[in-house]
# Entry
Amino acid sequence: MIRILILIVLFIIESVSAQDFQGVVTYKTNRKVDLKMGNANTSPEMQKQIQEMLRKQFQKEFTLSFSAFESVYKEEESLEAPQSATGMRIMVAGGGSDVLYKNIKEERFASKRDMLGKLFLVKDKLEKLDWKLEDETKKIGNYTCYKATAKRMERRIRSIRLNNDNEDQETIPEEEVTITAWYTPEIPINNGPGNYWGLPGLILEVGDGEQNMLCSKVVLNPKKKVEIIEPSKGKVITQEQFEDVLTKKMKEMRARRSQRDDGRSFQIRIGG
# Structure
């Protein structure tokens, strides 16, 4: 059944490519965060406030504008970082101006990344996951979705420390992570949110146990033509080079804050 479905959808994908098939999908994201307070003087009330601020910070909305083989994924405009009654503010590495362009046919991406005011253009090959197609189905909105899973190795940041002179974010060795996606052959493109792709239908939901992305709205072939523009500005580097630069910058910022920290703000990096 699943193999027949794949063949049918792949045929449809090839067919719709000549019909200027387009759409815009809205996704809502959230992420689990384990917060460990490094300051023994931090009250339970303050810890609760910070946990709530983190929860809101990771509830974001993104749009995926797509054609048959190309897409642009970007964050919708939102309010500034949440602030507590004490004036403490949380800032998360990465900005709302970032743009991810994917070319499925050429299996590559170009990502505009703003790091502390410096613009980078990350260009690299799309990661190919070895998806396992399952028979399980469920409805997301009006669409029937099929389950798919994949595994990959990741090194995850497990905790965030606040007001600690030794505030290096704890990491663990690489571990195997299971990705669970729900895709619909009713929208015959092999694309999805973020860097996810490669299934016989649009991915409407995907999660890795810590972050989840769920479709909240789909508009197919809107009256106004969807513009998909590949970003071109910024210093061109690979994904690996960008990760190295990001890690270095975060260490420099932590070193500076340890010299002049007023205890009212901190920055965190979660999974790149």
